[in-house]
Request: fold
Amino acid sequence: MFAKAYALIPAAGSGTRVGTALPKQYLEVDGKPLLYYALRALTQHPRIEQVFVVLAPGDANFKRCDWSEFEASIQPLYCGGETRAASVFNGLLAARDTVAGSDWVLVHDAARPCLGRDELDRLFGELEGDDTGGLLAVPVADTLKRANRETRVAATEPRDGLWLAQTPQMFRYRLLIEALRAADPAIATDEARAVEGLGLKPKLVMGDTRNIKVTFPEDLAVVELLLRNRAIAAKTPRKISDSRQGAKTPRKSKPSMISRQAAKTPRKSKPSMIGRQGAEAPRKTLSNKKKKRAGR
Reply:
């Protein structure tokens, strides 16, 4: 039997790099805040029991939004901290009466709205029986340059074996609490880093490059395009390929020229051996009568 799974979204940050007065989790795309899309992806997955949203103690924006679509699937927790690690840790403590030590916790970014069902399925599929847990990630594709203080290239770093971490990051409740309690919040910029601090090696699960995090203003335009394309694809029925149609309903072959001629002009059947013998029998009788007359 699978352990239960819960999700936790740290949404107590201000998102200063986006350059807006409104925290970025509340920036709207197609009339919905970014946090809405993150919640929708998580609440729609059948393995996730509930989603905890960790908010800043003085957050007044959450209540202004319409979350009725999710009903009892989400639980706001006004216990966010100064750092991501502190918010996640405080949220886990607040949920201790609901989540068991062996249950899974998926920590997901509030400003990562393009999470797909396939990525969640892969995460559960590859980590369900894992002793440590892991995270979504994608291999580094671009060339990496290390800069010096003058923003000139100091070195070109080899990208072999390098991955870009994404979310959700999925670990057992008890393990995650222990890792975050022992971690330095300034160093543990994600949950996997905190778990690494215990000497463990989280598993990398292939993510998707479309699962981007909104960090800069131009990211909003990219996210808007991705979400609209996904909405269009969801409304468009999938076309069945010719091979699948052929498997279900075999095509009728056209009649050949020979078969069509045969249908128009039926062939004369040859007489059987019995029929031929029957046709020759009268001849034999006639020849016998002639012999008798000749004898007379």
